[in-house]
Fold Coproporphyrin III ferrochelatase.
Amino acid sequence: MTTITNNGQSIDGQPVRNATPAAAAGPEWVAEPTAYDAILLAGFGGPEGQDDVIPFLRNVTRGRGIPEERLEEVAHHYRHFGGVSPINEHNRELKAALEAELARREIDLPVLWGNRNWDPYLTDAVREADAKGFTKLIAIATSAYSSYSSCRQYREDFAMALDDTELADRIQIDKVRQFFDHPGFVQPFIDGVRDALLKARAEIDGLDLATEIQVLFSTHSIPSTDAAKSGPKSRGFDGDGAYAAQHRAVAEVVMAAAEAALELDSSVSVPWQLVFQSRSGPPSMPWLEPDINDAIHALKGGPTKAVVIVPLGFVSDHMEVMWDLDNEALESAGEEGFWAVRTPTPGIDPTYVTGLVDLVLERRDGVPAEDRPHLTDLGPWYDVCRPGCCENVRLGFKPAVSGLVP
Ligand SMILES: CC1=C(CCC(=O)O)c2cc3nc(cc4[nH]c(cc5[nH]c(cc1n2)c(C)c5CCC(=O)O)c(CCC(=O)O)c4C)C(CCC(=O)O)=C3C
Ligand SMILES: [Fe+2]
């Protein structure tokens, strides 16, 4: 078994990204305690009928140079499910679960919900906040890692919503830290990998966990230029930036915990790799690789009999999980004759929901860094993003909230 590293050791043949551990990154990244009026649950948004599909895709891809063929392909994924993404329903359920958890803990914070790309929009949530007299919002974005698409774009869209509603001088939106290594987010993945390994061992006679199974941690591919810019410059991430380093560090933690739960001999480590999915953009533009399907086909001819697919980059079973994993990746595994399962996303797992409430409270109360739960050396992540953190070189500078002003 390997340990979490920041110091250039190799993890299962994958290069390790050098970076300053959070503890050494300076004390200034914990924000002052703040008396918030409400929580803003910020979702991606998705279509809820055939007529929504094209307008939704236009919203997502505005100004992004996504080829027309890719849009048609993605529209087909949605059409296959009646034009409905389950993501809005997931966020309704998450909102209800957060409200129940807040009530249980007697915390008086209403939850407002708004999406980046579909109704209800962030502008609706901001107007609702104003109508109710709320001026200080703490946002939870349904996205755990650092990158343009998974962090900064939410912050830019908050700024845009405040601009569009002309409420920027009345309403403040802060955002909880990226929670990739918060135990509430990680525990459901640990449980899922443990259960999958137990199932594989029970169903495949004489399975050798040290050689005959591969755990594939899958996340959304992003353009390599976005990956390189993910995380603050001062932390010194190289290569594919904080985005890749965070996923690798979390995967390490998940594997170590799952192996411990199976009481494997300490000499046995279960093979795993980080893979990417759902690439778009023109073929000429480099995105993070390997693609999950290529990675599965590459296992052909080796000792692998079984694959465990872990949707590490996602918080719920939305379209990227239902189509790209449950449809395509499981089919790729079938083509190679591999036994395969896909493990759950956090969804509304009570551990995850409790963790999200804890993330809000640590901001409200200004909990010091040393008391903040985190499972990797890379965290606990920043309350307030640094200038240039997760910037998008293709789209250029756009104003964002919840960060230091350059
Ligand atoms: C890192 C990341 C996450 C994880 C973090 C997070 O969750 O925020 C994520 C989530 C999601 N992505 C989603 C859907 C789409 N993403 C697209 C396009 C893109 N995603 C990107 C990155 C990410 N995406 C990028 C770099 C692009 C290229 C265009 C651009 O630079 O923006 C496109 C356009 C067509 C296409 O190119 O595929 C669609 C339709 C849905 C909703 C699913 C549903 O409806 O159930 C969800 C949760
Ligand atoms: Fe996406």
